[in-house]
Structure formats: C-alpha cells, structure tokens
C-alpha cells in the first residue's frame, strides 16, 4: 500500500506535528510505504495562469520539472494525504499555490481509484473551512469522500490526551481499512455537478483547450455522468447538469458568434 503525504505548511509546527502523528500510526502497518513531500522544499514559483496545462498538457507547464517527482508519486499511490493550515480563515498561500499547479486535474480528473485524507489546523479558527476546501479540491481530482482530521489549538488545550490519542488512532485505522478493503466512496452531488459542467464545457465547440477535449472524449467520460459507480439519483443530477450546461454553452456560443459577425 503506497501512501503519499504533502505537507502544506512552510514550517514544522502544529500542522506538521499532527500529520506526523497520523503518519506514525500508518507507518506501523506492515504493508504501508509512505513518501513525503513538503511545499517548503519544492521552491515552487507562483502559478502564472498561462493555461498551457489545459491547452497543451501539464508537461508544458514552465514549472513541470519541479513537480515531476511529486506528480508521479501521486499518480502511483493508493492513498493521498494533504495537510494545510488556516491563515486569515483560509488555506495558507504556499499550499494554495501547490494546488494551483494541479488545476488541470480539476479539468481532467484522473485519481478516481485513490483514497484521500485532509488534515488542517489553526491557532483559533478556520481549520474546518480549510479542510472542506481541500476535500472539495481533491474530490474534483477524482478522490471522493476524503477523510477530514482537524485540530484547533485552543480547543486542543481543553481536550484530554486520551481522547486526542483515540481520535487519531481511529482516523488512521479507518483510512487504512478504506484502502485495504477498497471501500467504494460515492461522489458528492457537488462533485457530480462540477464534473458534468466541465464535461459539457470541454466537449463544446467553443472550447479553446484541445487537451481537455481529447480527455473527455474517452469512453466512460464522454458517455457517462460520472465514471465511478454511484446512485441513480446522482447520475440523474449529472445528466441534468450536463444538459443544462450544454444549453447554456450553445446559447453563449451563438451570442459570441453574432457579436463577432457584427464586428466584421
């Protein structure tokens, strides 16, 4: 069982310590292999929003070389753990920049067979919002129902040591068992909606992202509301979203062509 951990904090403080507690428990399993990366060590420039990852592929990203090892590790893992910290009630900038470089997985989700855990901390507030944000992002990458572990420094002071230890024991064991038993995790309705909005956009005539279009033309993507088994109701939501998005895109396309014709 291969696990990849991305440490999102720029220092080895509370977030790093909490993540290490989870890692220590998982590393005690005889069949677990863990690879760790830290955004602090990647020396990653800011994403410049050049959009070449959409139009030409992620290999065209000017920073791809710095991310090649971590990308390969994530693609080859069974489970992914992301950690982040709440700064001003939102995800810290270094981790956000890391995620920005994987925007193409939001457009072309490719991690459906993997399992996830997100870890977030704060000195006072915001850790739950950060965790939900991380969960949503990797959900759009294809990792459904990522587990959440949070820690608030103020609340932690009021919590007994035995309760805190038990909480981490249970989280690590649950994550391990999910992967080992290949538990099926159903996508959220929100993930279904966003997935089908991108499907409609990428398959439309007005898209300017040929790599995205080629991806969505694959069997299982072009013809299904979601490539992972889920409930009939969620398939219906996906199909409805796709039809509505298609109609909106066609309308926008006709309006755009009309304006262009008027200019000519």
Quick one: biggest sheet? 6 strands, mixed
Structural class designation: alpha/beta
Query: Kindly, what is the distance between the CA atoms of the first and last residues, rounded to a whole number of angstroms?
Result: 60 Å
Estimate the global geometry from the Cα principal axes: globular
Low-confidence stretches: none
Number of strands: 6
Quickly count the helices.
12
Q: Give the helices and strands as they follow along the chain.
A: EHEHHHEEHHEHEHHHHH
Helix content: 40-55%
Radius of gyration: 20 Å
Proportion of residues in β-strands? 5-15%
Please, what is the average pLDDT?
90
Structure commentary:
- 54% of the residues lie in helices and 14% in strands.
- The protein is built from twelve helices and six strands.
- The protein has helices at 14-27, 39-42, 52-55, 64-75, 93-100, 103-107, 127-141, 153-158, 161-180, 189-203, 210-216, 232-263, and strands at residues 2-7, 33-38, 79-87, 90-91, 115-122, 147-152.
- Strands 1, 2, 3, 4, 5 and 6 form a six-stranded mixed beta sheet that branches.
- Strand 3 and strand 4 form a beta hairpin.
- Helix 1 crosses helix 9 and helix 10 (189-203) runs parallel beside helix 12.
Overview in brief:
The protein is α/β, with parallel strands linked by helices. It has helices at residues 14-27, 39-42, 52-55, 64-75, 93-100, 103-107, 127-141, 153-158, 161-180, 189-203, 210-216, 232-263, and strands at 2-7, 33-38, 79-87, 90-91, 115-122, 147-152. It is built from 12 helices and 6 strands.
